[in-house]
Structures are given as C-alpha cells and as structure tokens.
Specification:
The protein is mostly helical. The protein is built from 15 helices and eight strands. It has a single domain, classed as Orthogonal Bundle (Cytochrome Bc1 Complex, Chain D, domain 2).
C-alpha cells in the first residue's frame, strides 16, 4: 500500500510539472496551435523587443522594397496638365511590369486559364503584402508623421518598419475639404492639416456645436494596437495613440496602410489602403468585410475593435476608447456626413458629362465606361457606386503563392467604392496594388475580359480624371 501511495504521489508531482511546463510554453508562444487571439502576457521586456526589431528593420524593408521594384516602375512621372484638387501632380502610365516577351494587348486577348497556366499574371496585380505582413499594424507615410509631430509633439514613427510606397503615388497633403452644407466656401481647409491646434479656428461659425464636437473627437488621439503605453507597442515612447483623422487626414486619406482585422490566420489578412471619407453620406456598407451598415456603426467599431486588429481582449489591455452612442458617436458621424466629393465642373446633375464642357476624348471615354468596358454595370451614376460587394475572382489568373508573408489567393468580395473624385485617391483597389488609373484600367480590362483597344484605354483614363 505504501508503494502504491508513493506511485500515486509521484504521478501527481509529474502531472504538476507537465502542467507548469505546458503553461510556460504557452506563455512563451510555443503553443503550435493557431489562435485567433493576440498574446496578452508579454514575457520579453520592452527594451529587448525594440532592440531586436530595430536590428531586423533594414532586412524587413529591403525585402519589401525589392518586391516593389520587381513589380513596378516607381519613377516619378507626372501627367502634364492634370493635378489633384489642390495642385499635386498625378502620376501617369502603367506602372505594373509585364512578364518578358508579352504585351498588354496580347495579355488582354488570353483566357484566365492560359494566363494561369503560363504564369503570365503581372506581379503588380497580385495582392500587395503589408511592409511586414507577419507583424502588420498601422504604418504612416513620413510626411504625415512629420506634420503631426510638428503640430502636436505626438510621434507616429514605428521603430520596426516604415511605409513603403513613394510619396508621389499618394494623395496630396494637406487635402482639400469640401462641405455638403457650404458648397459656396469651396475648400475650407485653408491649406492646413486639421488638428487639435486649429480645428476650432477653422470651423467655428461654419459648423454647429454638435458637429464641432464630432470633429474634435475625430482629431483626438486614442490608444491603438501599435501606439499605446504597453510593452507590446511599436513606438519608442509610450504613445497617446492615433486619431481617426491621422489616417483620414482632412476627412480624405493619406493612404496609410494596415491589415484588416476580420480575417485569420495572419497570412490571409488583406493589406488595407485607407479609403477617403469624402461622400461617406451616400455609402451604405462599411468595414473591410462591409458587415457594418451605417457610419455610426463604423465609427463605434473602429474604436472598440478595428484599432486593435479586431481583438477586443487586447483592446481592454491597451485602453479601448468606448464612445457613447447617443452623443459622441452621433456627433462624429454627423460631421463625417458633411464631407463632400470635390467639385466636378464637367458633370451634370445626373453625373454624366455635359457635352459642351467635355473634350472629345472624355466623351469617348464615357461611352467606353458605360459600354464596352462594362464599368457602369457596378459604378452607377451619379456617384459611380452601387453600394454593393463584388467578387472579381482574380484567383482565376494565378496559382496560390506566398508573397512576403501574404498568402496570395482569393480576395473574396470587395466593396465597390465611389469613383467621384477618383484622381485624388491613389493608389487603387482595396489594398493599393494599382498605382495609377492606367494600371487600374489594364487590370479590369483583362479581369473583366473586355478586350479594349489602346485608344479606348486612353479615353477611359481621361474620363475617370474628369469625375
């Protein structure tokens, strides 16, 4: 009996040791099973994390920049006589590189099966990975970081990686601001980036008190996954966080990137090109999977979950800002609903070109848009969106592959964004893989199988610039 008791005690001790070891392995991240949750308990100290990631940063960025140069012509080639609303030049030309020995016209004549079998899908049309896809998180262009630091002393620099696309492919900064309630004022930005420092001066007397309070909240920084006070942040100093208008600067966009929060595991998550808030009042689907049906829903969801990669557990740790629905959410949404598209002097009230104001090229492009190119099937007037989701099934054209940590396969249904003011919002598609309008026309030409001629493509680009 004593021997049996010793064996039982030994078994209990052994079991306890196993439990402790397994628990330690789990805390250290050794658990091989996939998880939907971010690690909450970080056992590595912050200084060690930062040193390790700073050391790895040059290699991370070289890998991403090598990929971009392999895919695209990144040179600065502005179009003549065409600018965004406040004067920034627009880049022209197809920037995605073709496989050797084939032309765009030849590619447009091929079937999806042929392109897939011969591996001829242009690499610039494959899903674009995050600058460091395994890590993910919000990343801002340098010009945004510098301006926010100058005005507020708040630093949006990440110590582990930088933004990847060159500035000349991004929207202008500061962006113009047009209000649906005061079209007589034109651009109300006065050439400034709206921040806590100047919002009251710019908008007092133009907005009502609710809208001013909504704007104040949109420019107030709150904790976010990479920018907060915890040891698993990605800013060198503890951070007050980010504001809605850091990404949607002046109610538009500066094209910062992120990963969508609603897909797991990490390699399946889509890179996100931040969309403009202009014309948000006419939109009916929100969120990367468009599961949210109002801008109020989206405003609340951003603070509760999207800021934290869709993980409410980690949001609690890092300091989620829970907005009050009946006042704060409503005030923020009311201001967003005032943000208008830029003026389009050549369009009539139905969203079509007025023949007396348009060029022959633009009119031909409009005919192509609503005819042979089939763009108008989904991008309906007057705002050039049908407020629906569409699945382009681009996986017909290429074999599944891992690209810098991103599993390139099906994009699934994506939101049909409005095309009004589209020249102000490069790069294009939901992940920013299309750098110019010419890239966009080529992409849809063979994804939709429309077989446009060279002249029809040029005419279509001219029409898009007039919207």
């Amino acid at each position: 009996m004593k021997s049996a008791g010793n064996r039982t005690a030994t078994q209990v001790v052994f079991l306890c040791v196993v439990i402790v070891v397994l628990g330690f392995a789990y805390v250290k991240g050794a658990n091989p099973r996939p998880s939907s949750y971010s690690p909450v308990v970080i056992t590595e100290d912050f200084e060690s994390i930062m040193a390790r990631m700073k050391t790895a940063k040059p290699g991370v960025m070289k890998r991403q920049m090598d990929l971009l140069h392999e895919r695209y012509d990144l040179s600065n080639r502005p179009a003549r006589g065409v600018t965004m609303s406040r004067g920034k030049p627009i880049q022209e030309g197809i920037r995605a590189k073709l496989p050797k020995g084939i032309t765009w016209q030849e590619l447009g004549e091929m079937t999806p099966e042929e392109i897939r079998e011969k591996d001829l899908f242009p690499k610039g049309f494959l899903p674009l990975p995050h600058p460091n896809h395994q890590e993910g998180g919000m990343v801002f262009p340098t010009f945004v970081i510098d301006e926010i630091k100058k005005q507020e002393g708040r630093d949006l620099t990440r110590f582990d990686l930088d933004f990847d696309l060159p500035d000349h492919f991004l929207p202008e900064f500061p962006a113009a601001i047009y209000l649906t309630t005061r079209p007589d004022l034109g651009d109300v930005s006065q050439g400034k980036v709206v921040t806590i420092d100047n919002y009251y001066e710019l908008f007092n007397g133009i907005l009502n008190p609710k809208q001013i309070e909504g704007l104040r909240l949109l420019i107030t920084p709150f904790p976010q996954q990479q920018f907060n006070q915890t040891e698993d942040r990605r800013s060198e100093r503890p951070s007050r966080g980010v504001a809605c208008f850091d990404c949607h600067s002046n109610g538009h966009t500066v094209a910062p990137t992120h990963l969508v929060g609603d897909i797991r595991p990490q390699e399946f998550r889509h890179r996100l090109d931040t969309p403009s808030l202009r014309g948000v009042n006419i939109q009916r689907l929100f969120g990367s999977q468009r599961a949210l049906k109002s801008v109020e829903d989206f405003t609340e969801f951003e603070q509760r979950a999207a800021y934290f990669d869709g993980d409410p557990v980690i949001a609690t740790k890092k300091g989620a800002n829970i907005l009050e629905r009946g006042s704060q959410v409503h005030f923020m949404a009311e201001f967003q609903a005032l943000l208008d598209f830029p003026p389009a002097a050549k369009l009539d009230i139905f969203g079509k070109l007025e023949p007396s104001k348009a060029t022959e090229t633009e009119l031909r492009g409009q005919d192509v848009f609503f005819g042979k190119a089939k763009c108008g099937v989904c991008h309906t007037t007057p705002y050039y969106t049908d407020n629906l989701m569409h699945n382009l099934k681009t996986e017909r054209f290429y074999k599944p592959q891992i690209v810098n940590g991103r599993y390139a396969f099906a994009d699934g249904p994506i939101k049909n964004f409005p095309l009004r003011g589209i020249k102000d919002s490069p790069p294009y598609l939901h992940d920013g893989r299309l750098l110019t309008l010419e890239d966009t026309v080529e992409f849809f030409n063979f994804v939709l199988g429309t077989k446009l001629t060279g002249q029809e493509k040029k005419d279509l680009v001219e029409f898009l610039r007039a919207l």
